[in-house]
Amino acid sequence: MITFADLVSLMLTFFVLLFAMSSVQVDQWEKLVDAMNRTLNPPSDTTSPAPSTDFNVGTVFRKRAIDLEYLDGVIQSLIKEDADLSGARVSLLGDRLVISLPGGSMFAPQKALLQDNAKKGVATIGGILRNLNNQVGVLGHTAPGEPGANYRSNWELTMARASAVANELKVAGYPEDIYVFGASDTQFEALSDLSQEQQDAFSQRVDIFIMSIKKGQ
Hints:
Elements: H1 2-21, H2 26-40, H3 68-81, E1 89-93, E2 96-101, H4 103-106, H5 116-129, E3 134-140, H6 154-171, E4 178-182, H7 196-202, E5 206-214
Parallel strand pairs: 3-4
Antiparallel strand pairs: 1-2, 2-5, 3-5
Helix pairs in contact: 5-6
C-alpha cells in the first residue's frame, strides 16, 4: 500500500509539472470561464417569444374598471346620507350607471353657474370617482323654452351646465378626461311617465354616467 501511494503521488507530481510547463490557450480558457459563469449565474433577463406572424399586436395591461352593480350600491347609500344630493336618482342601464341630478335646484334659471349646495354634492360624487378607472361623461338636459339672454339655444345652455358639473368633478380629483354632451330639450318627452312635479325637477337635470369600461377601451 505504501509503494502504491508513493507511485500515485509521483504520477500526480509528473502531470502537475507537465501542466505547469505547458502554455495555456487564452481564448479557450476564456470560453470555459464564460460558460461556467453563465451556468452558475444565469441572467435575470427574460426572453420574449418570437412573433408567430409578421404583424403581432402588442400586449397592453389595462386596469380593470369597477363593477357597476357594486358602485350602484355605494352611490345609492351616499345619496341617502348626503343632504346636498337630495333629489338625485341613480339608474343602472346595462353598460352604464347614470346619476341624475335635478338641475332646477342646482342652477339659477337660464344660468350655468352651480349653486353652493350643488357644488358640495357634485364634489362628493367626485370624491368617489377619483378612485375609479371607469370612463365618465356628463350630459345636460333642459325643458322646452327660451334659453335666456346668455345663450342662443338650449343646446348651448345644456353644454354649459354639463361643463360646469364636469369641471367640478375634475376639481374633486377625477384624473381622466370627461366627455361632455348637451341634449337640449330633445329628451323632454322621455319624462312623460313621471308626475308633473318630477318632470319639473328632472327636465333640467344633469346626468353623470359612469361606463363599465376604462377610458380608452
